[in-house]
Amino acid sequence: MFESPEKAAVSAVLSMLLEVSASPKPGNVDRDHDFHDLRYEHFLASASASFPVFVRIAQGKLGVGEGVFELVRTTSELHLADNVHFGAFLLLSPLVASLGDAGRARELVESTSWKDSIAVKRAFDLSKARVVDAHTMDLRGDEVEREIEEKGLSLVDWMRLAPEENFIAKEYVTGFRLSLTGKERIMEFYGETEDVNRAIVLCYLSFLSELEDPLIIAKRGRDVAVRVREMAGEALEVYQSTGNFAVFEELDLRVRGLGVNPGSVADLVISSIYLALAEGWRF
């Protein structure tokens, strides 16, 4: 855990900066790769602008849902891009509120109310994020807010209804299981390589080789998401057998050629970095 709200907030910003700066992250924005409508600088602006909101969250002045909304609202005032950090903010709000204690973060999520859920819905609308179709309580539905209030759905209640492939939502249900796994991987990879960039990229690739990113599913369908997962697994095997880090640059070209970006995996790496920092990872 972090010793103070200020350190918790600084570490949240640092986690976002480290993630976006890690390169290459096949299919995503990093220090060397941009999209025409989403650039490295957008992520720097979003991360920087988030600091005062994270301080308020860590001080207990904003609840989990309200924190997500204020993060999206405040950071969007400093850039013109859509959906820069929505998924990351969803993960980080309870983790920062708990000062980096995943067990306490789970308790905070379980104690939320329908008002938190409505705040997250409004943050989603403001961010213009893309999501996988849901059979019930789809984020894009016009009647979602009314249903949330009528049913009294807390954030954990609502996230239980998310499609299984929405692993960001499921982190609320599982107690941040994947983020905790990522924390261990980052620390292990750093121990092996003594290289911050490589440790983060390898954490990213390990998740990419295991998970079908919901942003890819939403944009291009499950078959493409499966293909990206398989390609990542193949590239990771080459790296493990040869130590050739350049294989990830080749993978980046192939993933970009498909016209997709695994943004949810990047969000998961951010929460993994945050928990590693909370546990004392230093470099």
From TrEMBL:
Highest taxon of source: Archaea
Enzyme nomenclature, EC number: 2.4.2.52
Broad class of enzyme this protein falls into: transferase
Entry keyword set: Glycosyltransferase, Transferase
InterPro entries: CitG
Listed GO MF terms: ATP binding; glycosyltransferase activity; triphosphoribosyl-dephospho-CoA synthase activity
Protein name as annotated: Triphosphoribosyl-dephospho-CoA synthetase
Lineage: Archaea, Methanobacteriati, Methanobacteriota, Archaeoglobi, Archaeoglobales
